Amino acid sequence: MNRSLILIMFIVAVNSHLRAADHPNILFIYTDDQSTRTVSAYPDAYHWVDTPNIDALASEGVLFKHAYIGAWCMPSRATILTGLQQHAIESMRMEGPYPGSKYDPDKCKFWPADFRKQGYHTAQIGKWHTGIDTGFGRDWDYQVVWNRPRYPLNAPNYFYDQLIETNGQPPVMTEGYTTDNYTALALDYIKGKHRDESKPWYLWLCYGAVHGPFTPADRHLDEYQNADTPDIADIFPGRPGKPEYIQEMEMWARGKNDEPIEKKRPGPTPVGMLDLPGRTLRDWVQQYHQGVLAIDESVGLLMNALLETGQLDNTIVVYTSDQGFAWGQHGLKGKVAPYQAALAAPTIFRLPDNMAKGYRSRGTVVESPISGSDIPVTFYSLVGLKAPWKMHGHDLTPLLRDPIADWKHPALLVHTAKLYGSATDTIPAKGDPNLFHGPAPWYVLLSEGCYKYTRNLIEGEVEELYDQVADLAEIRNLALEPEYKSLLKHYRQMAIKELKRTEAGFVNELPAVATK
User: Fold this and answer.
1) In the chain, what are the domains?
2) Dihedral sign of CA atoms 412, 418, 424, 428 in order
3) Which of 142, 229, 467, 500 shows its CA 20 to 30 Å from the CA of 46?
4) Which parts of the chain register pLDDT below 50?
5) Separation between Cα atoms, residue 290 and residue 173, nearest integer Å
């Protein structure tokens, strides 16, 4: 090999390393079924909640008050991986025993593969819930995952005894508390194991907590003894102004002294959940919040590892969940339904100091609503790369610079039950099992400013419009009040415009709304 060729190869290698050094790392912490009420930095948290490490992250970053990441587990993750709304994610489908699912990687591409091509070392640790193909070697350089779709018999094991796949190899039964296990793997990765340290890295850390059966770590079983639940206005039936399925919702009954207790759920219990008829709402809420404490401890450990390894000043840290979880609000025990209590996920962006110049990004709160499809677009913007396709979300960096920026982009969340892509071109008729998943039918949710609009895609069903400043509990449906007629029309038209922008195949066959 001649000297000129050696010199060229050396220059290319050095320049490649320098380019990599210019790009920040991303630690993306992604929890499961975690409500904003579980994080003490959020204004709707119960007074007894204490999450010091997540709060510290918020005090050093930007907290988004209204983040609609997804409606339920699988489509939320699919949106994060593609930057697209559920109705545009082609070939993704449920197949076989739940949560069995598949997709065609030629039709459904995940953007971490592009990060790899552009010089990032990509890793994913924890829960995997979007097809039996986890994408190792295509999307991920390093991957240690609980592949729920591949092993449906192991799918209920959210907290212990999981079948874990490492880099596409056959699974190994793994003991121990899963939140702690995932954190230990992430700490090793941050400290340099299993990666090329000359490259910037992207780690998607997917906790299974606090999904049902809502199992806390043993060390936290005595925590939150002072837990209580303020009265919930619409936990019991009699919910005027709500759609029919909410008016009929009966997951809670009146126990001793009218204390809410769980009722037996009609039909089978969802995989991984836990129903205990007769158990009090207070006990459920205590247990659910106990499950967050191991995550909070993990956030502290992860941030310390970044500090100790000298990477804190070059790592973007983002914290969110696939969606929230309602405990009693609107009669619910669950997610999916288009309400703040069921959907709103804690969402925090912390920028490293070397990026924070020009950003008002320390301890600020953003009131503008955002959606899950905004997150990958923002990642690309923050690291200075071009996205490989047009995504549905919007770059959030203006809000990271100024939390009260004039934000013109509504947050959109479209729920199409278990269907994706072109399979959503026709809206199922009333009575079709494909119309519902969990408690809720297909819907279009749009939020801008202080208002949140929902169009339930059932013939003759009411629309919903709530003022989230005056009525965060979403009790008063303004869509039924004559003085809000013009505002309702505005949001209805805006929702249709967003469906057209995101190329929803069903946009021209929306069922008629209620006229009263």
Assistant:
1) 25-221+277-400 (3.40.720.10)
2) negative
3) 467
4) 1, 6-8, 10-18
5) 25
